[in-house]
Design goal:
The structure holds 2 protein chains of 2 kinds. By secondary structure, chain A is of the alpha+beta class. Helices cover 33% and strands 22% of the residues of chain A. Chain B has 2 domains: 4-45 and 271-398, no CATH class; 65-252, no CATH class. Classes of the chains: A alpha+beta, B alpha+beta.
């Protein structure tokens, strides 16, 4: 379960204070699918960064699976991101030096998972997105759509319980 | 820490890593051999010379007028020196120990240059020679004044009895005591070993057999003669001044040229060794510094060009320590490649130095020390960029500029 209550987030410079989230509240139950839309500068990215534990917030509360994540230290936040949140970035953020297999492997390695189990999950995830035959390819050797599918496989290779898609429009179509 | 992804990254863009690894290899080869030479020099400089270096000084002189009377003049001067209250002992001597200049001869256990042979550095001294050097006998006795002789100039005189160091005694008689044994000069004149000196160095610190020394009961020729004085502990400098003044008061046909402490003379002799050690230390420091800069530069470059990648890794679950370890491990791999190559280069350089300059062969533990040292230097150099990488926010992953 995902529950944000009265969350506030402001960016400050010496001259300017920009309120990106102002007393923002949202509750998403298990199995629900939510899309966040809005004009540029309305705070979608900030919301997703906060929701994905990529950034902290100033006030309010945020509970993920009944855990108050605002009280977690940096290591614990990393663990939550690794175990509970899957990211598909707008520009995919594949690591250019690693092939498809190793890219999908990145989050699994940080979970200290055994090699055999990692291989099984990676193969399943790549099967799912139809890229089993491209697992030795580098991202630069793939089309944009294929790169996006690798990013999906990377997010899907874990036991995903919440998936925050960072695909801002226009979205690349997935066949 | 899994190194496979790191190796994959290094394989994709190997140029910088290879250049830094080569730099490390060259640094290791030069640092290890330089360190080996420095340690050898320090060992040489810090060896126990056996003689009482801090309290000994020398008075150099030359005959200056007809009133000079050879041995009589020398005896008068020695009596003057020995009468000074701060003087422990004084002798006339033909050369200065640890100075780089002296005399040597070969002796044999049998006549006609047969039997076992010892090449030894010898000093011509009188009956106070032993005390003036501040050395002790392990066997036998010191020679007395009755056998101290001033041979005619250019004669092939050999003393009837001499004192030798244990090093000489062992070379000549390895299985038995040398005390009382007769040995023979190159002209087959017999000489008896009257006593065995525990340990002392001779004139040439760079000679392999610097401990092969003998004391001859001989008043040296005026051409080489000088006085060696041993002061009471702590009174050397005062005695140097008093000795010069006292000798200058005696008008016996010789003029005092200079008064120098053995400490000063030995320091001059070892000056090249010290200078070499300092020079090589600077070379080592520079090489390590340059290697550290190379490592730092590569690590900093890698971090700055992979900021988004670091953010992505953090976003998908990497902890700060994972990022820190990633960059340290990457640097460690590059350094390890360098040290493997460097070990080969170091051994080749060591072999070349040992064969070309007759230096001892490089000891392997210096190589181990060098490898560990470079690992530490490289980790220290990479730590700051790696730490900067670990502080990259995961939110970087979502930024498009």
């Amino acid at each position: 379960m995902f529950e944000m209550t009265q969350v506030t987030k402001a960016y400050r410079t010496d001259l300017l204070e920009t309120h990106a989230l102002r007393e923002f509240s949202l509750k998403v139950d298990k199995g629900e699918f939510v899309a966040v839309t809005g004009p540029s500068g309305s705070g979608k990215t900030t919301f997703l960064n906060v929701a994905g534990l990529l950034e902290t917030f100033d006030s309010g509360s945020y509970r993920l699976d009944d855990v108050d994540v605002s009280k977690l230290d940096d290591d614990a936040r990393s663990r939550v991101r690794n175990h509970k949140i899957g990211f598909i970035f707008q520009s995919f953020n594949l690591i250019p030096d690693l092939n498809v297999f190793d890219n999908v492997d990145v989050p699994l390695r940080y979970r200290r998972m055994q090699a055999a189990e990692r291989r099984e999950r990676i193969n399943s995830a790549l099967d799912l997105v139809g890229l089993s035959s491209r697992m030795k390819h580098l991202p630069s050797q793939l089309s944009g759509g294929q790169q996006q599918r690798v990013a999906i496989a990377r997010a899907r290779s874990r036991v995903i319980r919440h998936c925050c898609s960072r695909t801002n429009p226009p979205a690349t179509s997935i066949r | 820490m899994d190194i496979k992804p790191i190796l994959s990254s290094l394989r994709r863009s190997p140029t910088g890593a290879i250049l830094v690894a080569l730099q490390i290899a060259l640094a290791l080869a030069i640092v290890v051999n330089s360190l080996f030479i420095i340690v050898q020099r320090f060992e040489k400089v810090n060896r126990d010379p056996g003689v009482d270096v801090p309290n000994i000084f020398f008075v150099g002189w030359v005959p200056s007028s007809d009133s000079y009377q050879g041995e009589v003049t020398m005896r008068e001067d020695l009596a003057t020196l020995r009468s000074l209250p701060g003087v422990k002992a004084a002798t006339v001597i033909n050369a200065v120990p640890l100075s780089g200049g002296g005399s040597s001869t070969s002796v044999f256990t049998e006549p006609n240059e047969k039997g076992r042979r010892a090449d030894m550095n010898y000093f011509e001294v009188d009956e106070q020679g032993l005390d003036t050097f501040g050395v002790t006998l392990t066997e036998g006795r010191n020679f007395d004044a009755t056998i101290v002789t001033k041979p005619p100039r250019n004669s092939s005189f050999s003393p009837s009895g001499i004192l030798v160091t244990q090093d000489v005694a062992k070379e000549l008689f390895p299985k038995e005591s040398a005390l009382g044994k007769t040995i023979y000069t190159g002209t087959s004149q017999p000489v008896t070993i009257l006593g065995i000196i525990d340990h002392m160095h001779g004139s040439w610190p760079g000679w392999d057999n610097v401990g092969d020394v003998a004391l001859f009961p001989v008043i040296p020729d005026e051409t080489y003669a000088r006085y060696m004085v041993r002061a009471q502990p702590g009174q050397r400098d005062a005695m140097m001044k008093q000795a010069e003044e006292a000798l200058n008061k005696v008008d016996n046909g010789r003029v005092i040229l200079k008064v120098r402490s053995l400490e000063y003379i030995a320091a001059n002799t070892y000056a090249d060794d010290r200078a070499m050690a300092v020079y090589l230390s600077v070379v080592i420091a520079l090489l390590l510094g340059i290697a550290a800069l190379g490592i730092f530069g590569l690590a900093a470059f890698n971090v700055s060009t992979r900021t988004k990648q670091i953010g992505t890794r953090r976003a998908v679950g990497a902890r700060r320590t994972d990022i820190l370890k990633y960059f340290l491990a990457e640097n460690w791999l590059i350094t390890s490649l360098g040290v493997v190559l460097g070990c080969v280069l170091a051994l080749l350089l060591g072999y070349w130095l040992s064969t070309t300059f007759e230096l001892p062969r490089l000891k392997l533990y210096y190589l181990v020390l060098g490898v560990v040292g470079l690992w530490i230097v490289s980790l220290a150099a990479a730590f700051r960029p790696a730490r900067r990488a670990s502080l990259v926010s995961p939110a970087i992953a979502t930024r498009t500029v």
